[in-house]
Amino acid sequence: MRSLIKRHPYERAARKTLKRAPRDPAPSKWRYRWQRWMLTRGVRTTLRIGTPLLLVGIIAGVWTSKPENRALVTGKIAEVQEAFQNRPEFTLTSLDVIGADEQTVADVQTMLPIEFPVSSFDLDLEEMRATVEDLYAVKHASVRVGDGGVLEVDIVPRVPVAVWRENETLRLIDEDKVVSGIIETRAARRDLPLIAGKGAYAHLEEALALFRTANPIKEDVRALVRMGERRWDVVLEGNIRLMLPEENPVAALDRMIVINDTKDMLSRDIAAVDMRNPMRPVLRMSSDAANALRRASGRGDIN
Amino acid sequence: MRDLYESQRAMRQMRKAAMQRGVVAVLDVGTSKIACLVLRFDGAAVIEAEGIGSMAGQSSFRVIGAATTRSRGVRFGEVNAMQETERAIRTAVQAAQKMAQVRVDHVLVCFSGAHPRSYGLDGSLDLDGTAVTESDVAQVMASCDVPDYGEDREVLHAQPVNFAIDHRSGLADPRGQVGNTLATDMHMLTVDALAIQNLFFCIRRCDLEVAGLASSAYVSAMASLVEDEQELGAACIDLGGGSAGISVFMRKHMIYGDAVRMGGDHVTSDISMGLQVPTATAERIKTFYGGVVATGMDDREMIEIGGDTGDWEHDRRTVSRAELIGIMRPRVEEILEEVRIRLDAAGFEHLPSQQIVLTGGGSQIPGLDGLASKVLGQQVRLGRPLRVQGLPQAATGPAFSAAVGMTLFAANPQDEWWDFEIPTDRDPSKSFRRAVKWFKENW
């Protein structure tokens, strides 16, 4: 109601504030619910942790959405990486090949195209090891970064056990039937037995067993020849052939050695000993000896 | 009655669940104010200090939020305008939650109105010389004669007050004792069902679950009566805004509860009518200058009534304090007389001790203890609620005794009827089990 009495403005202003009815502080239903929701434990935790995370995520996302920023980051990372990898502690200056002969060392050095100095981070040691192991002469290799900037290649070479001649080529074979090298002449590896003939390679174990059996006459053995892809001939000094049977050649050879020990067979002038039938060894004399025999018995020469 | 029995059971479960979660609110829906306290239960905190004994279970919780708001839409302690009450509850709960910084889902509610009416029940059971078991206790309580308290009423409290075996009475816990007859006395308090329904509805509209109900006369007595008063017999008069709750305690159990539908608001309206001032002004004058005993000094103490009509003469009226007291005193006397009548009807004079404790906001009228001792008897004192942990200073006055009592009720309530086992013959699963047992024993 409008006052009938004129009041001083100050008084009126003072009254206005006084007159205000006590405000009803009741929250609206939705405000109440909102507050309760905000006080829920899960929501509070989510807000306290999630909001800063989201903020940081948004800032990072916006910043990286520009390509120049991404380039900056990757460039910086590469730079730091480069600087770290090129530190002298990681620099390799030389290659050291251990445990191989000169030929293999030279092969390894040509096969690993490394230009020193190089950082050890830039080398793939596993791949290098595979490369080295691809060499015939290498049985097993390990590559590691050694002290003082040396790249050490440790090699276990293949040990040849025989020389295999095929088509006038002399190959070295090791126990695993792996060809580990080629030699120019037989004289280069006089210490190794020679095998030859078609199918010789496939029966290497048998040949090696024969060589072991022939150990007492080792000085005389020149080669082992596979005949007709089924049996072995032992070729001795003076082109004497010991023809071994298809079945159980080791026993036959053993027997022959025993005969040799007792009868001194090999020092005689013979051309071949035929043991193809082990029950009935046959001795073939050289033509000179045969002629001499014939002459002695008065029947004349054969030719 | 079955219905409320079940719902009271459900509320007990809910209270347990809420305590497990650690946070529960108590709500005192009064006529002049609505108070909300948020409690946190975090195990028994051991307080090491000189002169502090066992805290009787009060140390297990802490008040972490407290708020009061002017009540709206409540008259005589009952919901009168649903929307307004709902808004008022929402205000109090929101402020308390904000202070506690935690969301509250369960509330324990107390209210003063709804025509409480108390009944004494008794029942007995033949024991045949065997020991009393839990199911016997349930059985004897089920055997109580329930009076016809009316269709539209609900049981609010039903507490076993006393157990007797043969001629030994006054047993608190009869289990394991041997005798021939087990008898019990129970106190049952019923209230208007509609009033409870309205209150439930208001609270549910605030997205809260009711985890317990109590009469405010009962809980304010729990807060303001000291232990020996509860033991020896005392009455607590909770002078509220719209009603004055009465509860009589004996051996630590409430044995009578009632409410006089008059309170501080009636005093205010008397002043408002007598002095021709708005209710708000009358309330202010009452709280600042009110009293019930006039002295010679009061004739000379003039009170500016004030006003905002624009009429200079009208706005500058004054009234002496003696006149104000002359308006207030008859009404206060009337309230106390009414209380006296109720106490007489309850047989209060037969109790061994007749201590009367005045509490509630109305007990703050200066000189009330003198007047009350003239009306009610010699042993009158003014009661303030117990101190509980974390209670703000503003909520330690006698106006908060119901709210504080409610916290004690929340922490360790007394066993009520529905806390005991369901008697075997009422529970379908158990009666089947009993049949199986009978077969086993007889074959």
Please characterize this protein's 3D structure.
The complex is a heterodimer of chains A (303) and B (443). Helices cover 40% and strands 24% of the residues of chain A. Chain A is of the alpha/beta class and 303 residues long. In chain A, the strands form three sheets. Chain A has a nine-stranded mixed β-sheet with strand order 8-7-6-9-10-11-12-13-14. In chain A, strands 2-5-4 form a three-stranded mixed β-sheet. In chain A, strand 10 and strand 11 form a beta hairpin. Among the domains of chain B are: 73 residues, Dna Ligase, domain 1 (2-Layer Sandwich), CATH 3.30.1490; 66 residues, 2-Layer Sandwich (Nucleotidyltransferase, domain 5), CATH 3.30.420.40. Chain B has 14 helices and 18 strands. The longest helix of chain B is centred in the C-terminal third of the chain and has 26 residues. The model of chain B has no long low-confidence stretch (mean pLDDT 86). At the A-B interface, helix 2 of A face helix 2 of B.
How is this structure best summarized?
The complex is a heterodimer of chains A (303) and B (443). Chain A is 40% helix and 24% strand. Chain A is of the alpha/beta class and 303 residues long.
For the record, the CATH architecture of the domain at 117-189 in chain B stands as 2-Layer Sandwich
Oligomer: heterodimer
CATH C-level class of the domain at 117-189 in chain B: Alpha Beta
What is the CA-CA span between the terminal residues of chain B? Answer: 39 Å
Order of helices and strands of chain A: HHHHEEHEHEEEEEEHEEEHEEH
Report the total helices of chain A. Answer: 9
**What is the count of β-strands of chain A?**
14
Give the helix/strand layout:
The complex is a heterodimer of chains A (303) and B (443).
Chain A (H helix, E strand, L loop, with lengths): L8 H11 L9 H11 L1 H24 L2 H19 L5 E2 L1 E5 L3 H10 L6 E2 L5 H9 L4 E8 L4 E8 L2 E7 L2 E6 L4 E5 L10 E3 L7 H10 L7 E7 L3 E6 L3 E4 L5 H15 L6 E5 L7 E4 L1 H11 L6
Parallel strand pairs in A: 2-5, 6-9, 9-10, 12-13
Antiparallel strand pairs in A: 1-3, 4-5, 6-7, 7-8, 10-11, 11-12, 13-14
Chain B lengths: L1 H20 L1 E7 L3 E9 L19 E10 L3 E2 L2 E2 L2 H19 L5 E6 L5 E10 L7 H9 L10 E13 L2 E4 L9 E12 H13 L3 E7 H9 L2 H6 L1 E6 L4 E7 L2 E8 L3 H12 L3 H11 L6 H5 L1 E3 L7 H4 L2 E3 H26 L8 E5 L8 H9 L3 E3 L18 H11 L16 H15 L1
Parallel strand pairs in B: 1-6, 6-11, 12-17, 17-18
Antiparallel strand pairs in B: 1-2, 2-3, 4-5, 7-10, 8-9, 8-10, 12-13, 13-14, 15-16
